[in-house]
């Protein structure tokens, strides 16, 4: 049984839809910016904000009460459904969303915690409990796109949306659903997250755009937090063909695991990522690897290790995080959509802003490369130790 993608939607920094996403990936556009006085000691930081694309929703008072992270998910989901040209009424539909921090970075959430600790009960908003509950984000998205029934939230850090795909595939293969609306959404940027990740020394504080949050570059001091949402529509091949859908590609397999380390330590060996990627590429020949590399040296060195041991540095690697940063639970789905776009238009998106310093042995794509693309492997790692790898193929009827 083949599971195929028939539509997708995206909203991200400098990206209001898939058309713009395609253009930015082809042209290697940096969607990140330097924000001054953002760090704990007034340092600058590199982030990726969504500044366009939510205007229509914000005019609706009912929707405008929702967390920003929910609005992002609604926009991406609506575009995905329109892209798939699918009628979800009277169908067995499942909604699966990957979310890492959800609405916890938003001002309402942060201010409410402060007010509660100061005994300011009268300032407590009636909406807070839903801001604090990650599944309320997914449930609200499902409501506004008109889906009832199976609605699931997966929260495994930055691998969440990739593992949402893994979950959705099981439901499709079992016959419990006929259509899976699968996405990821996160809006994590706040003073709290900036201070927290600064404490662990994984933010590019006081680094310029050419030096900070750069995958595969030894001078990069950390990653760029960003916000985004992406959604794909998954169906069984026979169902998609029956309704004469335009098939974007096939999700062959998703494999996930956990490093199994003490939660306050880091995995520097990457053995579980290596195992997941080894499982996903067995007897397969990817045209390139869409990498989770993000500018944190420990993570990027694990990618280098996988490139060496599994491919002898012959298979090309690239990372869209050089353009879009890391939108936490949404990054996996953004990598998947970028991969389907890559197969449709036959190009490898570049890892911009790097000159491979310290990673010279790797085959890193630094400029957009046009060639036939048929198969792609994706690596994805999350805070908390989860790894998720996916294998995608161009669809051939």
From TrEMBL:
Keywords per UniProt: Transferase
GO cellular component: cytosol
Keyword DNA repair appears in the UniProt entry: no
Ketosynthase family 3 (KS3) domain: residues covered: 1-394
GO biological process, one term: fatty acid biosynthetic process
Pfam families given in the database record: ketoacyl-synt (PF00109), Ketoacyl-synt_C (PF02801)
One GO molecular-function entry: 3-oxoacyl-[acyl-carrier-protein] synthase activity
Keyword Signal: no
Family: Belongs to the thiolase-like superfamily. Beta-ketoacyl-ACP synthases family.
Official protein name in the record: 3-oxoacyl-[acyl-carrier-protein] synthase II
PROSITE patterns, per database record: KS3_1, KS3_2
